[in-house]
Amino acid sequence: MQRIYEPQDLMEGELLLTMLASEGIEAHLSGRHLVGGIGELPICGLLGVMVDDLQAERAQQLIAAYNAAQPLPSDEPEDTQGVLIC
Fold first, then answer.
1. Domain of 64, in residue numbers
2. What are the DUF2007 domain coordinates in residue numbering (predicted)?
3. Mapping DSSP to helix (H, G, I), strand (E, B) and coil, where does residue 54 land?
4. Could you give the 3-state DSSP secondary structure of residue 15?
5. Which pLDDT value is given to residue 31?
6. Residues in Cβ contact with 23 at an 8 Å cutoff, skipping those fewer than 6 apart
7. pLDDT for residue 12
8. Average pLDDT of 56-61?
9. CB 16 within 8 A of CB 52
10. Residue 37: per-residue pLDDT
11. 47 — phi, psi (to 5°)?
12. Terminal CA-to-CA distance of the chain, rounded, Å?
């Protein structure tokens, strides 16, 4: 297995695992159980997306596409763009 990506947080890591699984790539999030130790452990480098060596290149391509994605244009008025309206 190869560590191919370091997510910013647990939520991004779980999102990427789900995205990769939807593409047929089995992945593992290393360090997920260490997140509760922040303060006593280093804050960076705890999490890592791990995939099989044979699927690493495809997984990296998918994650690169995820990171390059732009939000879809919306019909929001200009004065409320970026504001969560409930």
1. 2-68
2. 1-65
3. helix
4. helix
5. 84
6. 58, 62
7. 92
8. 96
9. no
10. 56
11. -95, 145
12. 42
Q: Does residue 10 have a pLDDT over 90?
A: no
Tell me the whole-structure pTM to 2 decimals: 0.73
Largest CA distance in the chain: 48
Question: Residue 86 domain-assigned?
Answer: no
Q: Where are the alpha helices (DSSP H) in 1-86?
A: 10-22, 56-68
Distances (CA, A) of 20 to 10, 39, 56, 65: 15, 30, 11, 12
Domain assignment present for residue 79? The answer is: no
- What is the domain count for the chain? 1
Closest Cα partner for 20 from 42, 47, 50?
50
CB distance 5 to 47 below 8 Å: no
Between the alpha carbon of residue 18 and those of residues 23, 84, 85, the distances in Å are 9, 25, 27
